[in-house]
Automatic annotation (TrEMBL):
One of its GO terms (biological process) is aromatic amino acid family biosynthetic process. Belongs to the EPSP synthase family. It holds the Pfam family SKI. Its cofactor is Zn(2+). Keywords: Amino-acid biosynthesis, Aromatic amino acid biosynthesis, ATP-binding, Cytoplasm, Kinase, Lyase, Metal-binding, Multifunctional enzyme, Nucleotide-binding, Transferase, Zinc. GO terms for cellular component: cytoplasm. This is 3-phosphoshikimate 1-carboxyvinyltransferase. Transmembrane segments: none annotated. The keyword Amino-acid biosynthesis applies. GO terms for molecular function: 3-dehydroquinate synthase activity; 3-phosphoshikimate 1-carboxyvinyltransferase activity; ATP binding; metal ion binding; shikimate kinase activity. Residues 394-811 form the Enolpyruvate transferase domain.
């Protein structure tokens, strides 16, 4: 009932965001003024004497930390002196450890020693730590003296310097002792941001994203659509971001200065974020922890039924776009410690944890809402213990859109001509990977409507661009296979696209597809394994004509060629030597191509002819609900003896898995299926399901759901025709056998399938088990079904359902009555840990880029450092020569620019594939181009190796293998 509060006023989506070229002033409350502009630092003492901004003070005390003071402290003190104003300084150690009682006392004692009186004004020059600490000193010194904030970090400029919240940390938690003390003036000099590294910029921008989430859809849209400009601190765009973030916060502070209600909503992402920060600091920054908190708290709002799944997807994508983490690193995911930290959050009341609940992008409930502790435990726990259901399921469900259809439609729409609005699109990890990759190839922008139900984009007409960075596709097989052929369509001589993925994707097969494309003239290099990603695809176009391809391993190879074939240079005749696996998915592709205006001529299942023709985007397209996802609630009906209706999945579906209901009928269920609806009732009267002998080749993705039911069916079930499932997210046949065996259910492998002898849960002696999901969504969901009947099943990696059915746990609970518990202690399960979760690496594990001019010793130093650390070592010059031949040969034939372009491509690829525990040696000339400098700025740490010029000249004089610099080393290095 507490969650029925009235949503906060939603700002007008159409209101323009504009930033004047001149500095802007924002009035906050009680005379507090924020001034935003460029080049303000040295003007501050003079500005403080102007009538509107003047502060009457006989002495100014500047507090800063060692790092910031070295950059700006003397400039500010000199400016005070030039203005004839008395100013002294106190410098602290940088970092959160300085924000405590002891340092506060030291500052106060210093001020007393300097005979500071009530007419003293304090000046905080620094980031959030300096600002919070200085503000708290000002709030208590002589019962309160004025304070001026000069934020130097993105985080402080956007958030902590505005609004008057001051505090120090104590052992019990962060910011628990403090006061409200409004700064008289805040000078936001945007030029000060230029000294920040990319990581510090991004962590500060987490606060701007947070503000867009809760109060401003236009601000969120700006951050979402202009990522590169924001990260590069482009003058006008970053000014807009800072101004809007400050204006919105000032608006809230004016309405609720003392955080009695509305202002507490500004803590979106902080309920969980602060708890993570309490365990992860200083390895993780505040904004990085808030980013994780925002994603998790948005997920909570979705699971409570208040936020559209598409909104969660947008928040997750925008955080990733700014290189912010979206998942808590496992070593900090200690549930009892996190819950203890959350229990002392300042928003809590009467011992109940309260949290800001989003209702849309740009809106939330007026006040933080109470959320039960058990809900947070289930949200945060990486594992779930499934409780057997004590009642029969009785529900109607509407599962998310089909992953297979969604990714096909996204790719065709991006290729096509004209604007299209897509509804019913699946919002999941796999579709987010596809959207991100298409964006990198020049597609978009992708516009979601306010409800999050409709996606609009305008097609490129097949004119894709070479992505600037390697495309990381995770373990998304559909995206990896489809985009391989798509990348061949790009025409940009000398350029190439790199496709890579996680560890599992790097062993999943793609060779049949790359061999077929290479045979028709495409240039594709396998960069690691000769059979899998990563690959480099030359932007040389797809010739077309006759293409021979095997479809026995995956039908996705066939669909990949078919989808891109209309844009080949000649009509395509695709020849398969034998019938492919999963023909229903190829049929789906052909039917969707027809929707987009391209008709495929087909001879049986082995010959396909595709004309040269652009796709014509329909004005609108409705994605079917996912028939594979619908198998799980229907199976719950079967296993509990209840009745479940799956809407929008019926006999007219183009998905093969829509026929799963017929298998349930053979197992003893009653089914009713019309054009767009399927109803299943399980056996009644205590009767068990019946074993079956079935070829599931037309619906291979549903075989695991059938296995879960077979585990409690009477007799031995044999499932065949599923050999391709050995090369999916994991070897699914092997994993199903191993996990059933853990429980005590007899099972074994067949040459192209699996057998299972069912047990009676009422009489069988079964064992508790933690299911190793191997990062496979279908393993998790299938064993959740079995957990509705068999006790003590713990899903080892609950989050892997995000791949295709993000709302799975919430839907099964809310609609079907399933219940789960967070295990009291997490059971170690290595197979359920995804080693490739994208999150910020600890500072001591991030790869080091060691740059140095020729002869500076970077290779020698790099090898020594790598040996000392036990890390890998890569010399980019050596890697270059292994791929392209001697550097001198490239320079002589094509010039330095060609070398630099290829060198940059190798650097990007290496940073993507070797982001941890590697020393990467790179020539100092890499910094000559703006793009390379931006890449290096985005990575941390970068170390420069230096050596006296005389020593370098002596070394180079003895090495004739390197190309001439064209000028003496002393000149080149200058």
């Amino acid at each position: 009932a507490a969650l029925r509060a009235v949503p906060a006023r939603r700002p007008d989506r159409t209101s323009p965001i504009a930033m004047s070229a001149k500095p802007r002033e924002i009035d906050v409350i009680g005379g507090s003024v924020v001034l935003i502009g460029h080049g303000l630092l040295t003007q501050i003492p003079a500005l403080l004497r102007e009538p509107k901004l003047a502060i009457k003070a006989s002495k100014f005390v500047v507090v800063s930390d060692k790092t910031v003071f070295a950059l700006y402290g003397q400039q500010l003190l000199d400016a005070f002196e030039a203005a004839g104003v008395s100013a002294i300084s106190y410098v602290i150690e940088p970092g959160e450890s300085s924000k405590d009682r002891l340092v506060k006392e030291r500052i106060e004692d210093f001020m007393l020693e300097q005979r500071c009186q009530r007419d003293t004004c304090m000046v905080a020059l620094g980031g959030g730590v300096v600002g919070d600490l200085t503000g708290f000193v000002a709030a208590t010194f002589m019962r309160g003296v004025p304070v001026v904030q000069i934020p130097t970090s993105m985080m402080a400029m956007l958030d902590s310097s505005v609004g008057g919240k001051t505090a120090i940390n104590v052992p019990a938690g962060k910011n628990l002792i403090g006061a409200f003390h409004q700064p008289r003036r805040v000078f936001a000099d945007i030029d000060l941001l230029k000294s920040l590294g990319q990581r510090e910029i991004s962590e500060g921008l987490a606060e701007a994203i947070k503000m867009g989430c809760i109060r401003s859809a236009p601000l969120f849209d700006l951050l979402e659509t202009r990522v590169d400009e924001v990260r590069a601190l482009e003058h006008d765009v970053i000014s807009q971001v800072v101004y809007e973030s400050v204006r919105l916060k000032a608006e809230v502070v004016a309405l609720d200065e003392k955080e009695a209600g509305l202002r507490s909503t500004l803590n979106f992402g902080h309920t969980i974020g602060h708890a993570i920060e309490g365990l992860a600091s200083p390895q993780m920054l505040h904004g990085e922890c808030v980013s994780i908190g925002c994603v998790l708290e948005a997920t909570l709002a979705r699971d409570l039924g208040h936020l559209a799944p598409s909104a969660v997807g947008r928040i997750l994508r925008v955080m990733k776009a700014y290189a912010l983490p979206v998942e808590c690193p496992p070593k900090y995911l200690v549930l009892p410690k996190l819950m203890k930290k959350m229990a002392v959050d300042k928003k809590n009341a009467a011992g109940v944890i309260r949290c800001t609940i989003l209702t849309g992008i740009g809106s939330c409930f007026e006040h933080p809402q109470p959320v039960d502790k058990a809900v947070f435990e289930q949200l945060l726990s990486p594992q779930l213990l499934v409780r057997p259901m004590s009642v029969k399921a009785d529900a109607t469900v509407h599962v998310p859109g089909s992953k297979s259809i969604s990714n096909r439609v996204l790719l065709m729409a991006a290729m096509g001509e004209g604007e299209i609005t897509i509804s019913g699109l699946l919002q999941s990890d796999d579709t987010q990977v596809m959207i991100s990759a298409l964006s990198a190839m020049g597609a978009g922008p992708f516009h979601w409507d306010e409800s999050g139900r409709f996606l609009t984009l305008r097609g490129l007409g097949g004119r894709f661009q070479v992505p600037k960075e390697p495309m990381y596709l995770g373990n998304a097989g559909t995206a990896a296979r489809f985009l391989t052929t798509c990348a061949t369509l790009i025409l940009s001589p000398g350029s190439s696209s790199v496709l890579t993925g996680d560890k599992r994707m790097k062993v999943r097969p793609i060779k049949d597809l790359t061999d077929a494309l290479s045979a028709c003239g495409c240039s594709i290099k396998h960069l690691e394994s000769p059979t899998s990603l990563p690959i480099e695809v030359a932007a040389s176009g797809l010739a077309g004509g006759r293409i021979e391809l095997s479809g026995k391993v995956s039908s996705q190879f066939v669909s990949s060629v078919l989808i891109s074939a209309p844009y080949a240079q000649k009509p395509v005749e695709l020849i398969l030597p034998e019938p492919p696996v999963s023909q229903t998915y190829i049929d789906m592709t052909i039917k969707l191509m027809a929707v987009f205006g391209v008709k495929v001529e087909q001879e049986g299942t082995t010959v396909y002819r595709v004309p040269r023709k652009s796709y014509t985007n329909p004005k609108a397209h409705q994605v079917e609900c996912d028939a594979s996802s619908a198998t799980y609630p229907l199976a719950i009906a079967a296993i509990t003896g209840g009745t479940v209706t799956a809407e929008a999945v019926g006999a007219n579906s183009i998905q093969g898995d829509a026929k799963f209901a017929l298998l349930l009928k053979d197992m003893g269920c009653t089914i009713e299926q019309d054009a767009d609806r399927t109803r299943v009732s399980g056996p009644s009267g205590g009767r068990r399901l019946k074993a079956v002998d079935v070829d599931m080749e037309p619906m291979t993705d549903a075989f695991m759901t059938a296995v879960a039911l077979a585990a409690v069916a009477e007799g031995t079930t044999r499932i065949t025709g599923i050999d391709n499932q050995r090369v999916k997210e994991c070897n699914r046949i092997e994993v199903m056998v191993s996990e059933l065996t853990k429980l005590g259910v007899p099972a074994g492998e067949l040459p192209d399938g699996i057998w299972i002898t069912g047990v009676d849960p009422e009489t069988a002696t079964l064992r508790p088990a933690v299911i190793s999901c191997h990062n496979d969504h279908r393993i998790a969901m299938s064993f959740a079904v079995l957990g509705a009947r068999i006790p003590q099943i713990t899903i080892g990696q609950k989050s892997c359902v995000e791949k295709t059915y993000p709302e799975f746990w919430a839907d099964m609970s809310r609609h079907l009555g399933m219940r789960y518990d967070a295990p009291p202690e997490m059971v170690s399960d290595a197979a359920s840990v995804d080693a490739d979760v994208q999150m910020p690496l600890p500072a001591d594990e991030r790869s080091v880029v060691l740059i140095g001019m020729r002869g500076a010793g970077k290779t020698h130093l790099g090898k020594a450092a790598a040996a000392h650390l036990g890390w890998d070592f890569i010399d980019l010059d050596h890697l270059y020569e292994a791929r392209h031949g001697p550097i001198m040969q490239t320079v002589a034939a094509e010039g330095w620019s060609a070398f630099r372009e290829r060198e940059l491509a190798i650097l990007k690829e290496t940073l993507s594939t070797k982001s941890a525990r590697t020393v990467i040696a790179c020539g100092g000339g890499i910094v000559e181009t703006a793009e390379a400098r931006a890449v290096l700025r985005a990575h941390w740490p970068v170390v420069q190796a230096r050596k006296p010029i005389a020593d370098i000249e002596a070394y180079l004089g003895a090495d004739a293998s390197r190309p001439s610099l064209g000028e003496p080393p002393a000149v080149a290095y200058a």
